[in-house]
Design the sequence.
């Protein structure tokens, strides 16, 4: 069950990143973040009302609130890093986010079996290579590296916090709703500041309503990924769930290959193969 839900997380996050990347080519990144998260919050709010999720309110929601604060910071740092530096450097570095939940799991006493340790090492190596690490070229700005590390820390923090935010499915819906409300609030505040400084909130020519389904998909895929990761981490070792969930760059690269006809570099193809091998080792270990 852990492997299934964690791999589902990778699929959802990978597709959400792919969709978000396409949308930010036409709209400001902040607008994409706020709009997609607002749609997800609206849907989650309806689910919470329908399932009576308010009865699960309690101290654990502070973990969801904290995850909601960390998420937008991580996303915005990631997008800025992509704008400043080569994706071949930023994408692999961002996968360091897996270190946070894995570290938490080890501190809490989890001890993966030898075959799983090998699987973790192989899978993480594969994910880094699948991002297409740039091995040559001009030096990368320190600001780009710093922003990427902030993004990785933020993503990993969300991984760890959302696991603690609920103990059952009904509570999980409420936790995800609270997380999204916090994300929308933080994103909207940042967008307001950006507009005051002269930035555009919508692309030239106005908001394209035709992009609303894509925004909804990105937001709902992201929130669903948070949910499946929480389930995976609650039903098995966090160290295994976190590594399997971190395979999303492979999904993004394959989506770009399939929908945009982008060619995979040899190092990316090798990385995808290693990630698959690591997945098999983790699942069978």
Sequence:
């Amino acid at each position: 069950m852990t492997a299934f839900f964690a791999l589902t997380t990778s699929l959802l996050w990978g597709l959400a990143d792919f969709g978000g990347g396409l949308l930010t080519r036409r709209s400001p990144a902040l607008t994409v973040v706020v709009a997609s998260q607002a749609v997800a919050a609206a849907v989650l709010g309806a689910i919470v009302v329908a399932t009576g999720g308010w009865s699960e309110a309690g101290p654990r929601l502070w973990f969801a609130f904290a995850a909601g604060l960390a998420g937008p910071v991580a996303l915005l740092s990631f997008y800025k890093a992509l704008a400043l530096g080569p994706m071949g450097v930023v994408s692999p570095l961002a996968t360091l986010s897996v270190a946070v939940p894995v570290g938490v799991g080890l501190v809490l006493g989890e001890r993966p079996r030898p075959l799983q340790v090998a699987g973790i090492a192989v899978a993480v190596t594969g994910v880094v290579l699948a991002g297409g690490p740039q091995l040559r070229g001009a030096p990368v700005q320190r600001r780009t590296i710093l922003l990427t590390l902030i993004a990785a820390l933020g993503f990993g923090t969300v991984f760890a916090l959302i696991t603690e935010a609920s103990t059952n499915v009904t509570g999980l819906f409420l936790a995800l709703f609270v997380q999204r409300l916090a994300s929308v609030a933080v994103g909207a505040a940042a967008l307001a500041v950006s507009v005051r400084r002269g930035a555009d909130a919508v692309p030239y020519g106005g908001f394209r309503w035709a992009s609303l389904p894509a925004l909804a998909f990105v937001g709902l895929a992201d929130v669903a990924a948070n949910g499946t990761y929480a389930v995976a981490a609650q039903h098995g070792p966090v160290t295994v769930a976190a590594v399997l969930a971190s395979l999303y760059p492979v999904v993004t690269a394959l989506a770009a290959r399939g929908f945009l006809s982008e060619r995979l570099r040899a190092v990316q193809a090798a990385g995808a193969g290693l990630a698959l091998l690591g997945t098999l080792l983790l699942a069978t270990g």
Observations:
- The CA atoms of residues 119 and 280 lie 7 Å apart.
- The chain is about 75% helix and 0% strand.
